[in-house]
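Contributing new records

If you add data, match the layout below exactly. Sequence lines come first and carry their own label; structure lines follow with theirs. Keep one chain per record. Anything else will be rejected by the validation script.
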Amino acid sequence: MRLPTRFLPVLGTAAVAGAYIRWFRPWQLTWGATPEEVSRAMPGDELVPKPTFNATRAITIGAAPERIWPWLVQAGLGRGGWYSYDILDNLGRPSARRIIPELQDLTVGDIVPMSPDGKHGIPVQRIDPPLSMVWGTPGDNSWTWQLEPMSEGSTRLVSRIRARYRWFSPAILFSALVEFGDIWMMRKMLLNLRQRAEAASR
């Protein structure tokens, strides 16, 4: 028995959604991270107790935490950039390839800018140099960076993003971008942070 042609798009959509939930979403939410890193509590988790989006990504960098920390502190639009796809998240301007001394004074309450005028972005909630930093808005989103020293001068850099989707708000459009696009930006950012920190250490 053949199904009517009108049902094929529905079946196709269901198959794609099933594959995304079963394989792609778990991969993109845990890229580079170990099961232990994914399951453990991190600073900033309390800002979003019941997240819809909860992503832990990690990378090993051949440099000490204090060599990586300045790159994170100077991140942001109009600052050092996001070390990702600059055409998309830095107005086409290349992200910094050097440490910028005048951008190293980030403190709690400052805004990590995500708008061209520098007025809109993510507030800094906690900062413990050179080991951890938390950005976010309580009840809405959090972005944690944790630097863990390893043997032979290397560092495990762990990033966690947690967010609550507002299903009946126009902000759901931005949430959709996070859901499907965040992995590509974060993966690129982590790889470029590794390249910059290791090159500077050498």
